[in-house]
Design a protein that fits this description.
Helix content: 25-40%
Largest sheet: 8 strands, mixed
Oligomer: single chain
Number of strands: 13
CATH architecture of the largest domain: 3-Layer(aba) Sandwich
Bound molecules: glutamic acid
CATH class of the largest domain: Alpha Beta
Radius of gyration: 22 Å
CATH topology of the largest domain: Carbamate kinase
Strand content: 15-25%
Structural class: alpha/beta
Length: about 375
């Protein structure tokens, strides 16, 4: 089942895993204090999503805004990079505590992840972030992600949590991203202009759609605005993930948007094609895993590649590099990101999980290539 409308995002079959991004202006009031009443309703909405069988990852801004208020920094802590970093250090503690309390009130366990751009762009670190998120979701926790603003310098920053949310969705293998904004969605012209119409569905972002986005962010607190939301939508689209912009300024905004269908949904490109482009795009295949017939059959059924089926390993590659998977007669079967380097793969050939710790000297990963990081050819 695929996602075609905003209301599909409430359906656990079409959308089992969702990223919800909450911006500073929704989280923090003009007085620099958290908007507790709104936030506790938001925690209720997250609990409701969980109760209907969806897994949720939260991307939460607000560290800089909360910290700036505590430290009494001007311009909301965004006057300079050192100010933003100091504010984020102070604010992030408060933010983590807040989410832990809010979700805890619904019997949910919050887990904090602070990421930089490099964590999601470097393939090796990407796999680490991805497997941590997967493990947390499996264990029933709600990952709460923010950028690691206190160490991220200008060059290695996302700067806005909209694009961070799209990248996190990719790493989390999520089906959709909900960006909570202060507006109902994308409008065909500046929303203050007469006759401005909301665009309910975008099927493919082009020049016409880009022209609709205005960079004006009304709150002045976050760093987003429609331009960064559109950039996030482009990342999601290419990754085969749906992205919706909905209005967070209402009570129970997720329920409102998904029941009434009020918002803008950017539909994803076909997932497999998108994943193939992402895997193939910037990478050269660094090696080959030759696998047996049983393994080929298992891969074609959608399973991860296990060491037991690997017959031999060619090439020099590191963890996170892209490798080709071939049948014994040389037929290419799949491409994917290797969870181990070439030497480890060689040592693991033909082993079962229970033998692997002795071979590696540490606890084995669930697969040699996880199915989420593989494209069948
Ligand atoms: N990471 C920033 C914070 O927590 C927010 C970035 C944004 O405004 O999107 O304050």
């Amino acid at each position: 089942m695929s996602i075609a409308t905003l209301t599909d995002l409430a359906d656990k079959a079409a959308c089992p895993r969702v990223v919800v991004k909450i911006g500073s202006a929704l989280l923090v009031g003009a007085d620099g204090q958290p908007r507790r009443a709104w936030l506790s309703e938001m925690a209720g909405e997250i609990a409701a999503m969980r109760a209907r069988g969806q897994q949720v990852v939260v991307v939460s801004s607000g560290a800089i805004a909360l910290g700036a208020a505590k430290l009494g920094l001007e311009k909301g802590g965004r006057g300079s990079l050192p100010d933003a970093q100091a504010a984020a250090s102070v604010g992030q503690i408060a933010l983590a505590g807040l989410w832990s309390d809010l979700l805890g009130a619904h019997g949910l366990t919050a887990a904090q992840l602070l990421l930089t751009l490099e964590d999601l762009e470097d393939r090796r670190r990407y796999l680490n972030a991805s497997s941590t998120i997967a493990r947390l979701l499996d264990a029933g926790a709600v990952p709460v992600v923010n950028e690691n603003d206190s160490v991220a310098t200008e060059e290695i920053r996302f700067g806005d949590n909209d694009r961070l949310a799209a990248r996190v969705a990719q790493a989390a293998g999520a089906d959709a991203v909900l960006l909570l904004s202060d507006i109902d969605g994308l409008y065909d012209r500046h929303p203050s202009e007469d006759g401005a119409q909301r665009v309910p569905v975008v099927q493919g972002i082009d020049q016409r759609i880009r022209a609709m986005a205005s960079s004006a962010s009304s709150s002045g607190m976050g760093s987003g605005g429609m331009v960064s939301k559109l950039q996030a939508a482009e990342i999601a689209e290419r990754a085969g993930i749906a992205l919706a912009i909905i209005n967070g300024t209402y009570e129970r905004p997720i329920a409102r948007a998904l029941v009434e269908g009020t918002g803008t949904i950017f539909l994803p490109k076909r997932r497999d094609g998108a994943r193939k482009a992402w895997l193939g795009g910037r990478m050269r295949l660094k090696g080959t895993l030759v696998v047996d017939a049983g393994c080929v059959a298992a891969l074609r059924k959608g399973n991860s590649l296990l060491a037991a089926g690997v017959l031999s390993v060619e090439g020099k590659f590191s963890r996170g590099d892209a490798v080709s998977v071939c049948a014994e007669d040389g037929t290419p079967v799949a491409n994917g990101l290797a969870e181990y380097d070439a030497a480890e793969c060689t040592a693991l050939c033909g082993t079962r999980r229970e033998e692997q710790e002795a071979v590696l000297g540490y606890a084995p990963r669930p697969a040699v290539i996880h199915r989420d990081h593989m494209v069948l050819l």
